[in-house]
Write a structure and sequence with these properties.
The complex is a heterotrimer of chains A (231), B (581) and C (315). Chain A is mostly helical and 231 residues long. Helix content of chain A is 70%, strand content 0%. Chain A contains 6 helices and no strands. The chains are: A mainly alpha (231), B mainly alpha (581), C alpha+beta (315).
């Protein structure tokens, strides 16, 4: 068939010498890697938008009820919150290191740091569990079940927008926690694949993308922590 | 022409040889359900969306029947409320939002930029499955009592009423992911998968339209996602964000909702702009006037589209200052749309205009979309919107934009690319008759509604005052004509699949890659060789390989000469001509 | 032209809105005709004569492009400015406006006057500014009087308002324009514009006298409080159960499966705590009428009793 122009010199034509990881519709490994990375960035943008919806709800209700939000925020445990922040920040470092090592073909270190990340994520979730149950014990639930009691919480009972604060708290940290769990599953799978030798300095796209995702989870928490616990 | 096609196969064999193409290289139901080929996914989407469009269209006919006279005619209030709600939800979330990108974007986009596929074929297939999951949840909503909230789900009605609202909101949440996947895929594909020489300034305008749309899909859809999640939590756990009885705020819900749903309007119309540029260029054989203005204004509209949601809320109780600011920005967005219309009309100037069916739809679009635009200016006027808000004027306005714009452009695009998708021609005479019926029926249906609205007829009414009866009756007759036109299209489309004349590779003499460098029925991998692009998409004067200009050397075996502008589509003469070439 | 497009104009705001509407319509029509005429002329003039035709590319004209950016911009800014000014007038309530409380519920309107009179029809004095203070007892509604060119959403959690000055005596429609469920399209009312004298007279006559017999008081409340929107007196089935033959009924089946006898206490509970007992086959949509006085509740109960010839069994 006629081409609109001369055919491109050497490209394509079902070349048989391409590496195993290169999918047929890409011209080169670089194109494939760049596409995957751009795709991940676009996905992260959608995640940011997802959370920003909740941040807007937070900002609106806070603006309407500033005192209530301060009072309710004070009942959150700043110590656990701070520890969790440190835990997540450290996990971001470990995941970055795992990418660093796979780039140098050091598979063992890569797996080691991925597992560290997984462990830290687990610690984060355990602390979250401790915090949640402490709240539930005192009747701090999202929505209609909200019924604060006990020395530290009684004063919230009469406050108009206190249920809203905790609804937003549970929804935001809940959805963030869901992201952590999904991240743990992915990191687990990636660590397993790395251990099996699926990645090398030639091709480590999934490790890189998982790292990007994990940084996002971390960054969201960096915003959640001061907004919910500190101010 | 139908009878004389019998001799065509002889040379058609010369055309495609026994080559495999994307339709026959692999067979069986599983080869379709597990396909990663963007063209096949486009067809999967096409079938699903056709079913949704049919269902929602039939609901519209029922609504018009109920409204043909005041009082109860064929259904009571409860049924009517469910019918208009489902019509809106199906049309907006399950038809218009995916429509052009998912069908034609999937089919055409990779070919137009010279790629073998989209960047993430598996994600593309996942998009269709997620969409189907959304459709199944919609059916679940119907089975659990239906939905009567209106497609806008305003709280507190939506958060306190029972029935299938929970399932429906879940369906919209899920279907949103299909939209995100498609948008993400196209953004990456346009950035990274273009053929050598396909610079940004050489991108066909359809690509620009889809690209701008994808940006909106990616940025806006997560917001409707979180809104639906909050609404679901409001219903199940009474979290008190939107329900005033629990201390929430219903106006906040409206802000959230329109922050997505206004940009969603641009998700629906921007790809239509893209199709229109292709049609106008090809059928007037001239370079699009102001290519850059059209390309960049699409992106400008996509961006500005995020700043105008509050114009849906002039009488909602938001502050007057917000209303004023939103009104002003709304005008700014009207201007790029106006520029596009002027540019398209100017493209016709000194062209060579061929009135085939797709071009009839393009011309219809120019008329209908212009009315849609002007009525949009009207409802953006603060003081006048107070009168027009939530009346039939608004109903008519958005139908002029959504149906007169998006759907008419989609119909034009489907006719235009039909030969490439199916390898067969549709019946040109029937095509023109149907285009006429759609145009007349549409105006007969919706123009009376403009007048009804400005006279004060509120929307979402199952019953109305006697003085509105005449115009409502007229509108109902119009809906029959419109329905007849659409059913005629369905009929000859199915007929064409089985008995249509085989299409040549480039029946319209178009100059974009999917026509010039791809076989009549595309190969599984689209191109046999990656194309190298050396000119703009609408440089007809340079496209010697299409027109056999210059020394004619460029004419290959299976590229036909330019077909006759005969009244009845490509006939055996064309194919004979191409065979002899 | 205004007569074709727009309903009767009966307020001071109407001529202003109408002239703006007409201006935009006329300019739009001129531009539309221009665009379509150019399009059709080009289609005819440059129709394809020969299949191989390849017209030379047309030079783009900067001047042309700039002009069709600048001219529409000027036009829309003009329209914006005009709409903005009128909008400010719509939003600025005159200080001496007469205030009427508007209560919206599924699916009726109640208008309450400063002296305590309530009515399901809105009476307003002509040629005087009137301000509504509106709230809803459940979901969103919207108060729309086409002849006055006013519309405003009515919310459950805050007051909203509109103002207008009616200029023509007569009866006009009030519509609900925010979708509010089942009988949204039946949620209309009338607004009657009368002279000041007639208005004062009506206001005086409607004030509930204390010596009115209970059943007659109930009859008045039946229409004033919007009961007639959901409960019929002739046995026909509406949103709520009919009142015909209701009183004295035994074995009245509830949605939770229990049965009750319809006596005075049942009626009282159903009025004051409407959500407590829901009759089988009906939705829990009735707002609570706890704002009624004891005498008014008694009046309603007496009126309901009149609609039945039975008595509940004594026990």
């Amino acid at each position: 068939m006629a081409t609109e122009t001369a055919p491109a010199p050497t490209e394509t034509d079902g070349a048989h010498d391409h590496p195993a990881h290169l999918e047929h519709h890409f011209v080169s490994s670089k194109q494939q890697f760049d596409s995957a990375k751009l795709g991940m960035w676009v996905f992260l943008i959608t995640e940011v938008l997802l959370f920003s919806g909740m941040f807007v709800a937070y900002a609106v209700f806070r603006q309407w009820n500033p005192e209530v939000f301060v009072a309710a925020s004070n009942t959150l445990d700043q110590m656990w919150g701070t520890i969790n922040t440190v835990v997540l920040l450290t996990s971001s470092l470990t995941v970055a290191l795992s990418i660093h090592y796979i780039k140098q073909d050091k598979v063992k270190q890569c797996v080691y740091y991925l597992l560290s990340t997984l462990g830290l994520a687990g610690v984060f979730m355990v602390i979250k569990y401790i915090e949640y149950t402490a709240k539930f014990e005192h009747g701090i639930y999202p929505g209609a079940a909200f019924d604060p009691h006990g020395a530290h919480y009684e004063h919230l009972a009469g406050m108009a927008a206190a249920p809203q604060f905790f609804s937003i708290y549970f929804v935001m940290t809940g959805i963030h926690g869901l992201h952590v769990v999904i991240g743990m599953l992915v990191i687990g799978a990636i660590a397993f694949m790395a251990w099996r030798g699926s990645f090398s300095s030639e091709w480590y796209t999934p490790v890189e993308l998982t790292g990007l995702y994990w940084h996002l989870v971390d960054i969201v928490w960096i915003f959640l922590f001061p907004l919910l616990y500190l101010i | 022409m139908s009878t004389t096609t019998q001799d065509a196969p002889v040379e058609d064999e010369a055309h495609h040889d026994e080559e495999t193409n994307y339709l026959n290289h692999d067979t069986g139901i599983w080869s379709w359900l597990a396909t990663k080929d963007h063209k096949r996914i486009g067809i999967l989407y096409c079938i699903s969306l056709a079913v949704v469009f049919l269902a929602a269209g039939i609901l519209a006919l029922f609504m018009r029947a109920e409204l043909s006279a005041p009082g109860e005619t064929i259904m009571g209030n409860e049924t009517y409320n469910q019918v208009f709600t489902m019509h809106g939800i199906l049309m907006v979330f399950l038809f218009l939002v995916p429509s052009i990108p998912a069908i034609l974007g999937n089919f055409v986009l990779p070919m137009q930029i010279g790629a073998k596929d989209v960047a993430f074929p598996k994600l593309n297939l996942a998009s269709w499955y997620v969409y189907m999951a959304g459709a199944i949840l919609t059916i679940a909503a119907l089975l659990t009592g239906g939905v009567d909230t209106g497609w806008t789900f305003y709280t507190p009605y939506s958060s306190t009423t029972g029935g299938g609202v929970l399932w429906m909101t879940a369906a919209i949440f899920v279907a949103g992911f299909a939209s995100i996947f498609t948008g993400l895929n196209f953004i990456v594909t346009v950035h990274k998968m273009r053929a050598p020489g396909m610079t940004w300034n050489r991108l066909p305008l359809f690509i620009w339209g889809i690209y701008a749309t994808s940006i909106v899909q990616v940025l806006a859809t997560p917001v409707i996602g979180i809104t639906m999640v909050l609404l679901i939590l409001e219903q199940t756990m009474q979290i008190g964000i939107f329900d005033p009885a629990l201390g929430g705020d219903p106006v906040l819900f409206q802000h959230f909702f329109w922050f997505y749903s206004h940009p969603a309007v641009y998700i629906m119309i921007l790809p239509a702009f893209g199709i229109l540029s292709e049609l106008i260029a090809t059928f007037s054989r001239s370079r699009i006037f102001g290519y850059r203005a059209i390309a960049l204004s699409s992106v400008a509209i996509a961006m500005l589209g995020f700043l105008v949601w509050g114009h849906h809320m002039f009488v909602s109780g938001q502050s007057a200052i917000s209303s004023i600011v939103f009104s002003l920005i709304t005008y700014l967005i009207g201007i790029p749309s106006g520029i596009k219309v002027f540019n398209w009309v100017a493209t016709l100037y000194k062209g060579s205009i061929w009135l085939q069916t797709p071009m009839l739809y393009a011309l219809s679009f120019l008329f209908l979309f212009t009315i849609g635009g002007f009525t949009g200016i009207m409802v953006g006027v603060l003081a006048v919107d107070v009168q027009l808000h939530d009346t039939y004027y608004v109903v008519s306005h958005f139908h002029y934009v959504m149906m007169g714009g998006s759907v008419v452009a989609l119909l034009g695009g489907m006719h235009y690319w039909w030969p490439k998708i199916t390898g067969r021609m549709y019946n040109e005479t029937l095509g023109k008759i149907a285009a006429g019926l759609v145009f007349v029926g549409f105006n007969l249906t919706f123009f009376p509604q403009l007048v009804l609205g400005s006279r004060g007829m509120p929307r979402r009414y199952a019953n109305y005052a006697e003085r509105f009866a005449g115009l409502h009756e007229l509108s109902t007759y119009g809906s029959w004509v419109l329905g007849a036109g659409l059913f005629l299209i369905l009929g000859y489309a199915l007929w064409s699949l089985a008995y249509g004349e085989e299409a040549p590779a480039n029946p319209w003499g178009a100059t974009t890659l999917e026509w010039t460098n791809v076989a009549a029925i595309p190969d599984h991998h689209n191109f046999k060789r990656t194309p190298l692009v050396t000119r703009g998409p609408y440089d007809f004067h340079l496209a010697d390989e299409v027109f056999g200009g210059g020394d004619g050397e460029a004419l290959g075996d299976d590229v036909p000469r330019i077909p006759e502008p005969a009244p009845s589509a490509p006939t055996e003469d064309d194919t004979a001509a191409s065979a002899s070439a | 032209m205004g007569d074709f497009w727009l309903p009767e104009a009966a307020s001071t705001m109407a001529p202003e809105v109408d002239s703006l509407f007409n201006f935009v319509t006329v300019v739009s029509t001129i531009l539309l005709v221009g665009v379509v005429a150019a399009m059709l002329w080009f289609v005819y003039r440059y129709r394809r004569q020969d299949p191989g035709e390849r017209p030379a590319p047309v030079e783009e004209s900067k001047l042309l492009e700039i002009s069709w950016i600048v001219i529409p911009t000027i036009l829309v800014l003009l329209v914006f400015n005009w709409g903005f000014k009128s909008f400010i007038k719509q939003k600025t309530v005159p200080p001496d406006a007469y205030e009427i409380r508007v209560q919206a519920r599924q699916w009726s309107w109640t208008f309450e006057y400063p002296n305590g009179v309530t009515s399901d029809t809105m009476y307003v004095p002509a040629n005087e500014p009137v301000k509504t203070t509106m709230s809803s007892s459940n979901v969103l509604h919207s108060f729309f009087v086409p002849a006055f060119r006013v519309k405003q959403d009515v919310l459950p959690n805050r007051y909203s308002s509109v103002w207008f000055e009616a200029t023509k005596k007569g009866t006009y429609d009030v519509f609900c324009t925010e979708y509010c469920g089942l009988d949204h399209s039946e949620m209309d009312a009338a607004v009657k514009v009368v002279s000041r004298e007639r208005f004062d007279q009506w206001l005086k006559e409607s004030a509930t006298p204390t010596d009115i017999p209970l059943p007659r008081l109930g009859e008045q409340l039946y229409s004033q409080q919007g009961c007639q929107g959901c409960h019929s007196l002739d046995g026909s089935d509406m949103v709520g159960p009919t009142w015909q033959g209701l009183y004295g009924k035994t074995g009245h089946e509830m949605a939770d499966g229990s049965t009750v006898t319809v006596d005075e206490n049942y009626l009282r509970t159903s009025i004051l705590q409407s959500g407590d007992k829901i009759v089988q086959g009906y939705q829990n949509v009735m707002p609570s009428y706890s704002n009624l006085s004891e005498r008014e509740v008694a009046g309603l109960v007496a009126f309901i009793k009149e609609q039945s010839d039975q008595e509940p069994p004594q026990n």
